[in-house]
Amino acid sequence: MLQVSLLTKQFGETPVLTDLSFELPAGQVLAVLGRSGCGKTTLLKILAGLETPDSGDVRMDGQSVLTVVPERRQVVYLYQEPLLFPHLNVFENIAFGLRIRKVEKAEVERQVRAMLADLELSDQLGKQPNQLSGGQRQRVAFGRALIIRPRLLLLDEPFGNLDAQTRATMQELFKRVAEHYSMTALFVTHDTREALTVGTRFGYLDKGVLTTYPSVRDFIADPRTGVREELAFWESVQSKSPLL
Questions:
Q1: Which residues lie below 8 Å from residue 229, measured CB to CB, with a gap of 6+?
Q2: What is the CATH number of the domain that holds 190?
Q3: Given a cut of 60, is residue 243 above it in pLDDT?
Q4: What keywords is this UniProt entry annotated with (predicted)?
Q5: Which of 11, 129, 143, 159 is the most exposed, having the fewest neighbouring CB atoms within 10 Å of its CB?
Q6: Which of 213, 186, 196 is nearest to 28 (CA)?
Q7: CA-based nearest residue to 182, from 137, 136, 146, 158
Q8: pTM of the model
Q9: How many structural domains compose the chain?
Q10: How far apart are CA 19 and CA 9, in angstroms?
């Protein structure tokens, strides 16, 4: 569904992306691991239409979208901070995209209540954003994004501001919801375990160069990702601690 070909971008004399290419089939989640400054946010902004590449192409369903304005790409970009409408309650935040598309009231009610159930928010539908926890606000942001069925969902370290326990819960929730809705998504993170949890496909971005892997085994085997070292560390901790 998504084809990225030879994307190049630099700011001034500094190269950010270098001949970056990959394909992402519909219904798959590409987890891209990368450290700060590797170019992952620039990549997402180009896909969303918020930045223009110096060269290369981005195609969705075979058609180039580089000349398509952001609001017509059917792409949703989620950040670390869930940007909810503070004057709308949970139900209306999620319903917003349907209402501006003039969906019938009964259908809005049906779809939003189903989404609330999937996100385990049915008991929060009347609350305002300032009455929610960080994890709950992020769930509402997901619901608002998914309810309009975007062609592509872009996630820029969306759980980075959450505590460890909430972050783990959100990772599992994302994986379940992504499977349920057959989401096509690009999820960038600097956390190896998060990448392994949320992804169905895997990539490593370093200094603007993207490596994709045919399998999770190949992703783990690449020493640059640090996955093997982290797995070995936790195995060591478990073997040494009588509490584990």
A1: none
A2: 3.40.50.300
A3: no
A4: ATP-binding, Cell membrane, Ion transport, Iron, Iron transport, Membrane, Nucleotide-binding, Transport
A5: 11
A6: 186
A7: 146
A8: 0.89
A9: 1
A10: 9
* N-to-C CA span, the chain: 44
List all residues 6 or more positions away from 197 whose beta carbon is below 8 Å from its beta carbon. Answer: 171, 172, 175
Distance separating alpha carbons of residues 201 and 241, to the nearest angstrom? 33
Q: What is the span of the domain harbouring residue 8?
A: 2-80+87-240
- Quickly list H helices, the chain: 40-48, 90-100, 105-118, 134-146, 164-180, 192-198, 216-221, 227-240
Map tokens 């999937």 to a residue.
Answer: 118
- CB–CB of 219/213 below 8 Å? yes
> What is the tens place of the pLDDT at every residue in 78-88?
988 888 999 99
Residues in the chain: 244
* H/E element, 15: strand 14-24
Contact 4, 20 (CB under 8 A): yes
